[in-house]
Amino acid sequence: MANFLRKAVKQKKEYLIRQLAKSGRLDNLKDLSSYTLSDLEKEHRKLHESDADRQRDHKHQL
């Protein structure tokens, strides 16, 4: 069971790093490999919240 959980955490971290890298808004992607899963989730959440804010602002401008 421990190996399964380790693998799941590793896969989730890799996914989040890829998503953050795709955004192009982070300067130093090498630092992300040292982040914990919780840290990566926070960064990912911030990214999506700022995207949602931008989209909401754009709609209000129209």
Tags for this model:
single chain, 62 residues, Fur-regulated basic protein FbpA, elongated, 2 helices
Description:
With 62 residues, this protein is an all-alpha fold. It has one domain (2-61). It has helices spanning 2-23, 37-61. Helix 1 (2-23) runs parallel beside helix 2 (37-61). The longest helix is centred in the C-terminal third of the chain and has 25 residues, at 37-61. The chain is elongated. The model has no long low-confidence stretch (mean pLDDT 84). This is Fur-regulated basic protein FbpA.
Termini Cα gap: 52 Å
Over all CA atoms, what is the radius of gyration? 15 Å
Low-confidence region ranges: none
Largest sheet entry: none
Task: Give the number of domains.
Answer: 1
Mean pLDDT over the full residue set: 84
